[in-house]
Amino acid sequence: MGTSSSFGGPKGKSPLLPPWAPNGDSPDSNNNDNDPEKGDAPKKENNENDLSKNYSGAKRALSRYINNATGITVKHAARSYVRSLGGAKKASRSSSGGKRAIANLGGVLGSIASRGLEQTLTNLGLQDLIGKSAEIVFAGIVDAIAPVGTTNEEADARQAIIDALDKLYDKFKLDDNNINKLDSLSESDIKEAILDGIKAYIYERWLQELSLCIEKNSMTPRDAIKKEADIKEYISSSVEYDFVDVDVLNIDFSQGSGKETIENIFQEAYQTLES
After folding, report:
1. Is 28 contained in some domain?
2. Is there a domain that residue 31 lies in?
3. DSSP string spanning 32-47?
């Protein structure tokens, strides 16, 4: 299986997914709705116009990085990208779909660790999946906590959940279909999965711009994959969070201090990339 299956090849085309991942077409970039909670809602048009001045600079930085310009590193490209979103705070605020999906992921994993997989599936309305293969159960969980949305940002959030669960699949060696091994999830496992999901979300969102630059510069598939891997590794090594006084086994990530924790992780992640 392997996490590389989630990120293989240049984006812009259908990304390769782990075998268990449910099918779901990526939404057209123009297919937005008016829900203010959605990351790409039309109500943000004025804000997007304000950010357009920074976006051209971000594209130049990314293009120069793609073309191996002297002195331009992935760090420069990351800083320009976050600034094109209006800075760390605005980047975090525009990640509503990602934050919602990650909060759901944290809640599900905490429930599995505290109550067991079967009770968690029942609480999700997925009791029909009890006893099914790990692939079927994970696909059902993805659909429950990160359903196919109507915006690219929601599609990125869904892919991030797939990637985080894919890593858990490998970590717990669930290819033997003994998915009840997840009952032994620890606090550190959950914290790691939450961070994996956020890293994957930031990567997926940035990859939309990256893929355009790759296609524009007519890179070979090998070079494109190398650049994507470098950016993914940079995000992975840069984004960390100290879960001080956060009881991930029992906290409700959808509200109160749990919601604030997710907000803080996203904002700190973007601040790190902007610095």
Report:
1. no
2. no
3. ----TTSTT-GGGHHH
* CA–CA dist 108, 75 (Å, integer): 34
Look at the pTM and tell me if it is higher than 0.90: no
pLDDT per residue as tens digits for the range 157-201: 999 999 999 999 999 999 998 999 999 999 999 999 999 999 999
CB-based burial label for 49 (10 Å; 0-12, 13-18, 19+): exposed
The whole domain housing 173 covers 3-23+36-274
pLDDT at 18: 72
Q: How confident is the model at residue 265 (pLDDT cuts 50, 70, 90)?
A: very high
What token pair was written down for 109?
């994993």
Answer for the pair 155, 161: CB distance below 8 angstroms, yes or no: no
C-beta of residue 157 within 8 angstroms of C-beta of residue 149: yes
H helix runs in the chain, sequence order: 45-66, 74-84, 88-93, 96-115, 117-123, 134-145, 152-171, 187-216, 221-238, 256-274
Domain membership flag for residue 12: yes
**How many domains does the structure of the chain reveal?**
1
